Structure formats: C-alpha cells, structure tokens
Amino acid sequence: MSKQAELDAIFEKISGEYGRLNKRQQDFAIREIGRTRGELSDLLADYAASDGTIKRNRINRIMRDLDAIEAQIKRNGTVALDEIIAESATWTTRKINGAVTTVIGSPVIAASSFDRVNRDALRYVTTRFAEDKLVLRDRVWNLAGDLRNELSGVLRSSILKGEGVSEMIPKIRRVHANETWKIKRLVTTEGTTAYRAAAAYNAARSDVVEWVKLNDNPGRHANHGAHKCYELARADKYKQGAGIYLPTDSEIYSPHPQCTSYITYVLNERWL
Asked: Which terminus of the chain, N or C, has fewer Cβ atoms within 10 Å?
C-alpha cells in the first residue's frame, strides 16, 4: 500500500470516529439546553395554588418569567456550541497530525502551531454567515426563541384549561423532546464544519500537504445527489482530479447544513 493510500484509509477511519464524537456532542448540547426544564418546573410550582393549578391572572407574569428562561437557553446553548466547536477543532488537529506522523514520520504542522489553528477554526465557525445569512449566535437564539414560543403556548393553554402543574410538566418535557431535532441539526452542522475547517487550516500551514480532497458521505441521504457536497466532490476545479481543492477554498468547509463530508490530504510528492 502506498503512503497516500495508507493516509486515505486512516482519514476515512478518523471521519467515522468524528461521527461518533459528534453524536456525543449532540447529547451534550441537548442536556445543556434542557437544564432550564428544572428551573421552569420550580417556577410553576411557586405560582401554583394548593390544588396545583395556576390562576389565570398570573399568566402575564409567567410569560414575562419565560423571557428569563429564554435568555438562559441562549446562554446555555451558546456556551455548549462554543465548547463543541473548540473540541471538534482540537480533536481534529490532534488526530490528523497523529495520522500523518504515522505515515510519513512528520506531523502536518509543529505542535507550537496547534493552538493558533484551533483558534482560527473556532473563529471561522462562530463568525461565518451561512446560507441563512445568520451567524452561529443568531441560530442559537432562533432555537431558543422557538423553544420559548412552544413553551408559552403549552403553558397558556394548560392554565386556561385549569390543568395542574403535574399535568403541565409532561407537556414541557414533550416540547423539549420535539425540539431536539433542531439541536442535533445545529450540532451536526457546526461541529462538522469545525472538523473540516480545522483539517483545512492545518493543511494550509503545512509544506507536507499539496492539496486537499473533499469526500462526500453518500450513505446517509436518499437524495444525496442533490446536495452541494456531491457536486463539490465530483468537480475538477484545478484539473487535479475530482474533489481536489486548495486548503484555502472555503466552499468545502461547509457545503450545506448537516453535511458529513470529510477532507483528506494529498501529500507533497517529496513525502511519497
């Protein structure tokens, strides 16, 4: 097996490992954003009368208190996503440098440059404007607003119907459960963007890597052929072969939301 083929195989394995890490990151984000459920339950208990119901004249006060819950969701979500992105970048830098060292006996970049690369990846992911014209903070805030609106509707309806707090709690849980797909989508999109960006930023600072290659992940979606990563992975932009790009070509960092494509390295000939 050639050095290039050996490296390609290791990078494909790393992609699978990152997919498993991202699943754990999704669970982490769901837990962090869901921590407000306990605060909301305590809040409702404070408003409840002896029979467990909440008087209608307290609805407006509860709606105002939901503003504080929404703000907490925004804070928890922002902190969680920042941690996930930083972890993804750091993990990627460590993994790919280990892989390249295994194959050619030299890392992609010197260890002294790791922190700078990881900071650059974090900055890119948190400040980039995606297809929705929003930055990461905006998307977290939208998620918090959606969750708040759903909770508001459930609580208002329950109070008007005379339901007790014990009947409201399961409904609150269901609202959080129904919103988890948005959290998973956000973590998949932002985490894997950090993964690809960190791989590209390492390559851009190296004399070991000549080009990078975008590899799509066709097994996840029935309509994969309509995705941008499918197109990019088959394009021959520089007449170097399908999916070959410069590490600075940012279109391969985040081809589309929830994209699980991954980047591999094309080694400089003198390392082969």
From this structure: N
CB atoms within 10 A of CB 35: 12
Between the two ends of the chain, the Cα-to-Cα distance in Å is 11
Sign of CA dihedral 218, 223, 225, 226: negative
The order of strands in the sheet holding 262-267 is 244-245, 209-215, 262-267
The token duo for 254 is 């985040």
Are 188 and 26 within 8 A, CB to CB? yes
Handedness of CA 194, 199, 205, 211 (dihedral sign): negative
pTM of the model: 0.92
Backbone region of residue 230 per phi and psi (left: phi > 0; alpha: psi in -120 to 50; beta: other values): alpha
Q: Which two tokens stand for residue 207?
A: 């004399």
Task: Name the token pair of 263.
Answer: 């980047």
Give per-residue burial for 162-180: e unless 16+ CB within 10 Å, then b: ebebeebeebbeebbeebe
At 206-249, the pLDDT tens digits run 999 999 999 997 665 667 667 799 999 999 999 999 999 999 99
